[in-house]
Amino acid sequence: MKHVKAVIFDWAGTVVDYGSLAPMGAFVETFEQFGVAITIDEARGPMGMAKRPHIAALMALPRVSQAWADKYGRTPGEEDIDAVYDVFVPKNIAVAASYSSVIPGVAEVASALRRDDIRIGTTTGYTREIMAEIVPGAAAQGFSPDSIVCTGDTPEGRPSPYMIYKTLPELGVWRAKDAIKVDDTEVGIEEGINGGTWAVGVAVSGNAFGMAEDDVKALAPDEFVWRRKAAIQKLQAAGAHYVIDSVADLMPVVRDIDARLARGERP
Questions:
Q1: pLDDT above 70 as % of the chain
Q2: Does the annotation mark 256 as catalytic?
Q3: How far out from the chain centre does Cα 68 lie?
Q4: pLDDT tens readout for residues 8-45
Q5: Within a 13 Å sphere around the CA of 172, how many CA atoms are in the beta-carbon half?
Q6: Looking at 5, 17, 51, 249, which residue is catalytic?
Q7: Residues that constitute the known binding site for Mg(2+)
Q8: Does domain 6-20+99-262 have CATH number 1.10.357.10?
Q9: Residue 244 predicted with pLDDT over 90
């Protein structure tokens, strides 16, 4: 390929941790420790954001804010967000390595991209401390990107494009239109759109579907269809130019984008 220069992947739910399951238990357990129950669906809502803003978004939910007020006599403030975050991060670090399995097809796609001289970048809502638990396992399974940009490396996280702007020069790419952002969350798609890249949503292996691979395979066909349709619609609503089931399906999209660039099209 001549025109696509870089693919920038998200991590959890896109290249590792099928279903983006690692943070969910940590969020639920953390809030339980403060005497406030949240559901897995609530925890999933802000996925893709940096983790402190994620916690702030959860605490701003009317039901959660009211539960906090019932417990503590006041609605949650900045100091409460900090307290919850300080408990959450060690929990997420503790489980991260257990959820570092590379999603099927990712290693093969990474190899195909490298054969075409396409650079591989990554951005993530995880901190570097969390990523330190994930990167070695992913590398051992065949996924080792050229760049990793984490929460805290830039002034803001998603949906701002700052992590994209940091990634592109690290990859030696200066035209955002020559890059593709691949992500399983709405804010990750928005990150790519705001950064001027093509945006590819990942519907089945990630947060939008939110199930382990074995559980996905065990679904009745009609339930799989409606869950998949709902996941696709979420990502399309966020602005995705394409939506695929998993990264295993990416290469035809890369080739199509390369052809569109050759015709002078832009994201």
A1: 100
A2: no
A3: 28
A4: 999 999 999 999 988 888 888 899 999 999 998 899 88
A5: 6
A6: 51
A7: 10, 12, 184
A8: no
A9: yes
